Amino acid sequence: MRNIKIIEVKSEIGAGTRGASLGVDALKIAALDFMSNFFVNFPNDVVETENNLLYEPIESPYAKRIKGVKTIYDRVSKVVETNLRSGLFPLVLAGDHSSAGATIAGIKMAKPKSRLGVVWIDAHADMHSPYTTPTGNMHGMPLAITLAEDNLDCQLHHPDEGTLKVWNELKNLGKICPKVLPEDVVFIALRDTEKEEDYILKKLGIKVIPVSEVRKKGVAHVVRQTLLSLQKCDDIYVSFDVDSLDSSISRGTGTPVANGLKEREAEDILAGLMQNHKICCFEITEVNPTLDKENLMAEIAFNIIQRSVNILLMN
Questions:
Q1: Number of C-beta neighbours around residue 296 at 10 A
Q2: Partners of 284 in the beta sheet?
């Protein structure tokens, strides 16, 4: 039986499309529409945002709003650390995916000696750095921060000193760098990467389970393979970006991609993972109701959250 604490991170300064900050409220509306008491049943922490920066000029073109992202990292990591130290299970509901690196930092700050595994269920690798980014959007960088990987072999840009100073602070948050080893990361449903990311994924030998493998070998196989890859880890963090779902059902997200997971596949994968006692934190991110019709994305995401949490409560 896990004692769950909901952590609301309504930050969207790392995204390129506006509206992800409304994702948490969209999930709450979905719960009400389903007549669920979910959000009344668990205590919550709300992390203050820096979304006012969206109205200000961008200083760092290769790491947009990086100073604001650093502020968010400080706040989110502290909240996650505090809750884990109190014996609580953080369920993080985030706007854009950039803050996932802060969640991981918080886990490591609470458990510095623990070997942490990461399951990244996402259409994207989020392995860019200010040296390689095609957009400058920081929701494409949290895993590079976590792995402390600049990928200088594929350098395209020359970021200014101010940007690099904050970038290095992000990598060293909690005085643990890197936070996670490449062999302790598993991607599921990855299918939209740039050549710079393909290079670093291959160089580091990171495990990728494509959607085709989910279809061919089944969900139980995928869960088994994921946990087998992370068997040397003491704890496992699961990050679920809703764009891992197929674009036919994930219109309500900033970067939908075709050939993704079906809703039931995603639910079953997460249900399988949540049965493992090593899971220490679950994050769901990138619900954007402004791009959606009838709050469909949030309703799908809420169903996934509710089933995952029910399994956590049983274990």
A1: 16
A2: 93, 240
| Alpha helices per DSSP H over the chain | 23-33, 38-41, 66-85, 100-110, 142-147, 161-171, 195-204, 211-217, 219-229, 263-274, 296-314
pLDDT, one tens digit per residue, over 241-299 is 999 999 999 999 999 999 999 999 999 999 999 999 999 999 999 999 999 999 999 99
* DSSP collapsed to 3 states, 172-226: CHHHCCCCCCHHHEEEECCCCCCHHHHHHHHHHCCEEECHHHHHHHCHHHHHHHH
* Sequence-separated (6 or more) residues with CB below 8 Å from residue 224: none
Cα–Cα distance list, 311 to 88, 117, 119, 270 (Å) = 16, 20, 17, 9
Predicted TM-score (pTM) of this structure: 0.99
Q: Give the Å distances, CA to CA, from 64 to 128, 132, 254, 265.
A: 13, 13, 16, 34
How many residues are there in the chain? 315
Q: How far is CA 223 from CA 31, 49, 119, 267, 269, in A?
A: 27, 34, 10, 12, 6
The CATH T-level fold of domain 4-314 is Arginase; Chain A (3.40.800)
- From CA 172, how far away is CA 100, in angstroms rounded? 15
DSSP secondary structure code for residue 304 in this structure: H
With both helix axes pointing from N to C terminus, report the angle between 23-33 and 296-314 in degrees, rounded to the nearest 10.
Answer: 80
- For 92, the enclosing helix (H) or strand (E) is strand 89-94
205 burial level (CB within 10 Å; 0-12, 13-18, 19+): exposed
Whether the CA torsion 234, 230, 106, 37 is positive or negative: it is negative
